[in-house]
Amino acid sequence: MTGSGHFLDEALALAARLPKVDLFLSAAGEEVLEIYRLHLDDLKSRFRIFRDKTASGVPVGMLYEDIYHTVVVAPATSNTVAKCAYGISDSLPTNMFAQAGKRGIPGIVFACDTEPVVVTRSPHDWVTLRPRRIELDNVERLRGIDFCRVVTSPAELEAALDVRLKEISLAWNTSSS
Fold first, then answer.
1. For the chain, which ranges sit under pLDDT 50?
2. H or E segment and range at residue 81
3. DSSP label of 152
4. pLDDT for position 58
């Protein structure tokens, strides 16, 4: 998770339906959770959480232990998209994305700034954003990254996750917890 609130609730709802999910939070992602009144303690009851507290991204090492089959960055800020598109890995989510790609582990990125006009929920109201050409170009550049699929809506994210679950013979979690 990065510092975006765009469809944050929807992304977390999908994560809760997936089998055995770990959340990797950037420092900004952790801040945004609190801004949107989503508390780490509540998330810890459903997910194992890794926070961006180490300079070298120690949790990234788990990618080398074959623990993970997919890395999902959702929702992804335009900053994170740009970093991923240009190979910069200076936060826990961007480091996970880069190292997953190097291992050939598929990544799914739910990019936020993908249309000329984006309507999104802020912590207090709905706002209209107009991504700049550079943000839109970075999304296109990201689409060209090996082992990366870019999605632009909760429905596309769900569909991409559904495809990935079928590829690895897993199913959505149907429990009510």
1. 177
2. helix 78-85
3. -
4. 77
* Gyration radius of the chain's alpha carbons: 15
Compute the mean pLDDT over every residue in the chain, rounded to the nearest whole number.
94
Long-range contacts: 59-65, Cβ < 8 Å, 24+?
59/24, 59/92, 59/96, 60/92, 60/95, 60/96, 60/99, 63/96, 63/99, 63/100, 63/103, 63/105, 64/99, 64/103
Characterize the bridge pairing of strands 48-51 and 126-129: unpaired
- 107 Cβ neighbours under 8 A, 6+ residues apart: 70, 71, 72, 73, 97, 100, 101, 145, 147, 148, 149
Give residue-wise pLDDT tens across range 96-145.
Answer: 999 999 999 999 999 999 999 999 999 999 999 999 999 999 999 999 99
H/E stretch holding 29 reads helix 27-35
Name the region of 169 (left: φ>0; alpha: ψ -120 to 50; beta: rest).
left
